[in-house]
Amino acid sequence: MAAWKKLFENSTRLTLFIIRERLVMSHTQTTSGKHHFAHHFKDAHHEFDSCKVGMWLFLLQEVLFFAPLFVAYALFRSTHPEAFLEASHLLNWKLGAFNTAVLISSSFTMALGVNAAQRGLHKKTVKYLALTILFSVIFLVVKYFEYTHKIHAGLLPAGMFSHPVEHEKTPLFFSIYFMMTGLHGIHVLIGIGLIFWIMMRAKKEEFGPEYFTPVELVGLYWHFVDLVWIYLFPLLYLIR
Amino acid sequence: MYSDTATDQEEKNNYLNHSKGIKSWLTSLDHKRIGVMYLFSILIFFLIGGIFALIVRTELWGPTKTFIDANTYNQAFTYHGTIMTFMVILPLIPSAIGNIILPMQLGARDVAFPRLNLISYYVYMSGALLAVITLFVGRVDTGWTFYTPYSIRTGGATILVLAGAFLMGFAAILTALNFIVSVHKLRAPGLTWTKLPLFIWCLYATNIIQMLATPVIALTLMLLTFERLMGIGIFDATLGGDPVLFQHFFWFYSHPAVYIMILPAMGIINEVIPVFSRKNIFGYGGMAFAVFGIAIVSFVVWGHHMFTSGQSETANFIFSLITMFVAVPTGIKMFGWIATMYQGSVRLDTPMLYALSFLFVFLVGGLTGVFLATLPLNVHLTDTYFVVAHFHYTMVGGAIMAFLAGLHYWYPKFVGKMYLELPARIGCLITFVGFNTTFLPQFVMGIRGLPRRYYDYPPEFTQLNQVSTVGSFLIALGIFWTFLFLIISAYKGAKAPRNPWGANTLEWNTSSPPYYENFEKQPIVTRGPYEYHS
Q1: What pLDDT digit, counting tens, does each position of B466-524 carry?
Q2: Of A75, B22, B30, B67, which has the fewest CB atoms closer than 10 Å, so is most exposed?
Q3: CATH H-level, domain A42-237: superfamily
Q4: Chain A interface test: which of B30, B113, B187, B219 (most A C-beta within 10 Å)
Q5: Chain B contacts of A40, Cβ < 8 Å?
Q6: Is B125 exposed, middle or buried (0-12, 13-18, 19+ CB in 10 A)?
Q7: Is the ipTM reported for this complex over the cut 0.90?
Q8: Number of domains in chain B
């Protein structure tokens, strides 16, 4: 019970923090401190702001990077709804739902980690980042079991598909499935690497109220990766 | 106008002699040095792409075989197209000239993320080398468009080229991101959005296109790679996929991409014409918003590449209509430039000569674009030499002419020496004449129905083809001449003052070549970029 209480307290504090820092005091971040900012910026806050704009732009191009797959999905689903229906039944929605929960939890611990870094709580930062890595590894392990099961069953991209199915276009669904979840999986892997990197830096107590840019940026990236999955899960697993 | 005196003190610490040795260049985070590295790398690829162009034109001297067989010919035009688009014209102005000029015009010390800038350069280089390496292992013959299903079935090292294009796209995205943040965050005090030089506006619009369109081609090329590796079937009709979907994805990027090539070119013309006319640009706001008009419309016209690919008639009609809208903002820009020159004190220095050549050839290129946007004409002209002539008029006539204008305009700033005026003008003349000799006949051949990319042609086209081939060698001569004298100028040229053209933008408010950190003290902007009076 105590753990839950703590979690609740933390999340309340996080919400209040977001309201205070992001909406009310968004432009008053402290500029003093030991962090040495690059020579072409006015001050540390100027640097932080620029980095954040850069990250948002990067996420914008990420959206466009995933876009063709979503377009291909929409095209083939609209022309062959029956094949997509059949194929979706061949996926295990329970595993998908479990993974969704895992990934959302990881986003939550990531947010707590960012918050801890902003407040200079080094140990907590490391703890929450480690938890985030744990969740993302669980996600990948489940994904691994899903993939191996499909490979054994012959549920593969269209060129190598060998599972008995009713509809001619069902294999195409699995091409899209593997491309989408594969690309997302690569993003998860990169994310784990990035989180590990900032965790190591947090261990060296590099972050505090005056400098937490990398944690913030990796956090944004991680939430994006999470968000992609939130679209993938219903689109792929929940066609009924 | 900024002061014109330079002291010895200033020369001691410029970006060229700040530190020495090849390593200090290769690991430099200075945007000017990275820009110079881009410039040299791109010019080397320009040379390679040019050689392939000459191979293609030489083969077309007569019908049937002249000196290479049909397969080699296919490879030659593929390499010409791939190298010239992905490695040369796309990064030429934004990554090379833009890298050097953009932060200086902003009054900043560097781009927002210098390290990312250097990473972009190496990502670009690894992509480019990956693509060039295929010359020795495997070769490709898909054409630069990689159309399916041929690109799935053909042999060769297509995957390497796809990976190379993927990496180069990634580099372009990172550069664009860097520039956008720089424009937002690093403007000098007083440099409001309405006081920004139009070159910055054009680069900004270009960067938005790069950010939003490039990821789409990156993923598409990745899908094509998987298509070749394991047959995912998304673009393969035999596996239930749709080859036309590939064309949609490809042109969703590649149509905006032609504006990635032309908008920065327009940016350079925007700088050159007011300076050499001694007049404020005509309709600053209109010129700036026209650029954005072009950028926005560029995203919704891709279907005009597929009028004959089995698109629905409704789609054809809509795409044709929207394509014609491109002519409106482009027209605004053309009239703006001409109105700027009107009653100005026009000086015909080399940059201005190139700018005038640009106006002429780009007018031809733009108007033939309207021809091609017209549905019934397009059905006749699609995939003929008319298309080839059209896009060379915009891409070579537009982008390369403007690049040369910019190169001569900023040469004193880059190198610290003046270029030799007379040889430069002669070079411009040769290039201009050669260019028109090469591509005007191709309009005629296209209207008479000669398809592009063919190895062989009926004998009645021999004469026109030969004129075109002579022209291509004239271009080569002009370019060679120009660069030869640019190199000579670096040694023999007179020492450049800070502001040889009496320009008003910030990059002239520092020594030539610029200081290591661009400015001795933070410049403050109090007036518009083209206000030459007072």
Answers
A1: 999 999 999 999 999 999 999 999 999 999 999 999 999 999 999 989 988 899 889 99
A2: B22
A3: Cytochrome c oxidase, subunit III, four-helix bundle (1.20.120.80)
A4: B219
A5: 103, 108-110, 112, 114, 186
A6: middle
A7: yes
A8: 1
